[in-house]
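Worked Example 4.2. Consider the chain below.
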Amino acid sequence: MQVGNVVPILVVAMVLVVGALGPVGAADQHHLSAIPFVFIGKADDCGAGTFGSHIVTSAWLGGMGLPDSGGDTALNGVLDTANDPHHGLLLSKNGPSTDCSSAGARITGVQGLSVDATFTLGFDYRNGGHCGAGAPRFNVVAKPATGPNTSHFVGGCANGVQTAAPQDPAQWTRARFTPAQQFPSIPPGSRIVSITLIYDEGTDTASDQDLNGVGLAVVDNIFINGQFIRTGTGVADGASGEAGRGNGDNDD
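Applying the procedure from the previous section yields the following structure tokens:
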């Protein structure tokens, strides 16, 4: 071997070793996204005599949310923040809660995520929309260390720990769902199978900020145990169904 080739080989080897070590916890990071979808039930899907109507919408829309970059909305007059797309996720059900239909987003990239004793989900929501005991919420399927998969109702919005959303504390609220808001609690040591954000309360269901039953919510900064989903793409409505970028069934 020529001496001139030794140094480059050693440098490459060192880079590979350092890269393999990586920062602590890097292996636990998942690339997450939220894929809009709607569900419109067929006859008897939600019980005898029920069916769904084309009254639901789930869509990532520009200008609807908080700055995607994480900036404060007080800086909207600053060029970088003013030019930010401000994507937000609109969830709407334009009819009664009893209609067998829902809007939501499938959270991809979560399959295999480890559940610890402080596992937390959440989102920011725009004030004035619907924040009910049942929606928006998360439906979670987990695989415990032993036994079959388990299903969990996490939330809904009104059951969460509520604080002012940092990016716009006057107009947005942050909701967090700890194990105390998991029904039943997800056993620590479980692995996530799927997480779905669900909106299925309609215009006949009021909430503290939605006294008339507006039937819609705008959410942003979807929080999955330490990671944020701040933006997304896709529109799913009563006519098109699943958003065009896939249905989110394959998590990785």
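Residues 156 and 228 are 19 Å apart (CA to CA). Residues 30-237 form a domain with the Jelly Rolls fold (CATH 2.60.120). Compare this with Example 4.1 before moving on.
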